[in-house]
Design a protein that fits this description.
This is YD repeat-containing protein. With about 100 residues, the protein is mostly beta strands. It is built from no helices and five strands. Helices cover about 0% and strands about 30% of the residues. It starts with a strand and ends in a 34-residue tail after the last strand.
């Protein structure tokens, strides 16, 4: 697997450059979570970093890479899964919607 040296900005990892594994698209993950063990033996604290472009696009519209910025309120999971109402599903009929509509409401 490929990795890319990625800088971290803010938080406890500020100024560090760590190798981050790249995904199938060649980009690092959108969120990077670092578990920090508790000194008293309690549950670990999880530091959350979000991926952002490292700078403005260059001359040909290509971005110069990625960096991670510290997210102090990173307990939300990183994304909303359904910001709009979910579509109703059909319980009968064919997959193309040719069957009877059995939804309620």
């Amino acid at each position: 697997m490929k990795s890319q040296d990625t800088p971290f900005v803010g938080g406890p990892l500020d100024g560090r450059v760590l190798p981050v594994l790249l995904g199938l698209t060649g980009h690092p993950p959108k969120t990077y979570r670092v578990p920090v063990p508790d000194a008293d033996g309690g549950p670990p604290t999880v530091l959350v970093y979000r991926r952002v472009p490292a700078g403005p696009p260059g001359r040909f519209g290509l971005h110069p890479g990625w960096k991670y910025t510290y997210d102090p309120e990173g307990d939300l999971g990183g994304r909303q899964r359904w910001p709009w109402p979910k579509p109703r599903t059909r319980t009968g009929g064919t997959p193309h919607g040719d069957g009877p509509d059995t939804t309620t409401g």
